[in-house]
Amino acid sequence: MSREQLFALLPGSVNPLARLLALRRVEIVAQCAVLMIAVGWLRIPLAVVPMTASIALLALANLLTRWRLEKGGAVRHGEVLAQLVLDVAVLALLLYFAGGSANPFVSLFLLPPMLAAVMLPAAYAWAMAGLTLFAYTFLMFWKLPLPAPQGDLAQLDALFARAAGGVGEHLGHSSGFALHVLGMWLNFVISLAVVAFFLTRMAAALEARERELAAAREDALRNEQVLALGTLAAGAAHQLGTPLATMAVIIRELELAHADGELRADLLLLREQVYRCKQTISQILASTGHERAESRQPLRLDAFVRRLLDEWQVIRPQVRWRLDLLGEQSAPWVAGERTLEQAILNLLDNAADASSASVTGAAGSRADGDRPSEPAVVVAVTWDAACCRIDILDRGPGLPEDMAKRFGRAFASSKTLAEDRPGGLGLGLFLANATIERFGGKVELFNRGDSLGGACTRISLPLQRLTAGAHVGHA
Question: Sign of dihedral through CA atoms 408, 412, 413, 414?
Answer without folding.
Answer: negative
